[in-house]
Write a structure and sequence with these properties.
The protein is α/β, with parallel strands linked by helices and 227 residues long. It has helices spanning 53-56, 59-66, 74-82, 148-152, 171-181, 201-211, and strands spanning 4-9, 12-17, 20-24, 45-48, 69-73, 88-91, 96-99, 102-108, 125-131, 134-138, 158-162, 185-189, 215-216, 224-226. The protein has a single domain, classed as Metallo-beta-lactamase, Chain A (4-Layer Sandwich), CATH 3.60.15.
Length: 227
Amino acid sequence: MATQLTWIGHGTWSIRTGGHTLLLDPFLDDSPVATEKANRVAADFILVSHGHFDHMSDLVAVARRTGALVIAIAEIAGWAGQKGIKNTHGMNLGGGYDFPFGRVKMTPALHSSTLPDGTPGGNPAGFLLTLEGKHLYFACDTALFSEMRQIGDVGLDFATLPIGDNYTMGPDDALEAVKWLRPKRVVPMHYSTWEVIAQDPHAWATRVRAETEAEPVVLEPGGGLTI
């Protein structure tokens, strides 16, 4: 079966695979670009990369409404439990686990992570998912780091990278990341939500097409693709 990906906007994704719906980094009601709202978005599982508000501000609301299993670094899973979310699965960097929908490996990310209430959020992370025999990498919020070469060694069918600069990699470093990761397809994200991270994704895609073998795909919020 195919896996269907929808970019809800900013760093938020909906992933439908094997009869399950995954929601990655739920930033919905306060997002200026999100195409879904917390009171209606579907989720059987919620993956959270780190504690910043623009990646998990709707975590508690969606988890309470849907009963979805929250998959996150141990500190965020514990924080969610303190908020009354009992259905959680804590992980840590480098660890992997087989869920009903496929395998999740928590990858490093070079960033920071503090929850909106000031609680330390543990290590920031990305996710390497194995779904229906395909390898999908969600870098989430990160700077460029050399271990991306090793992540790419699994043979990535898909990757999504931040290109916004200022808070994460910018276009130049994201292009280098594509060269190291070597994905079949790559989608830019985490850009132009606010002026401080404004970027031209089409200009970046042109560079990716010219300098790598990856197929760049530029989505509008609400747009998707099938892997």
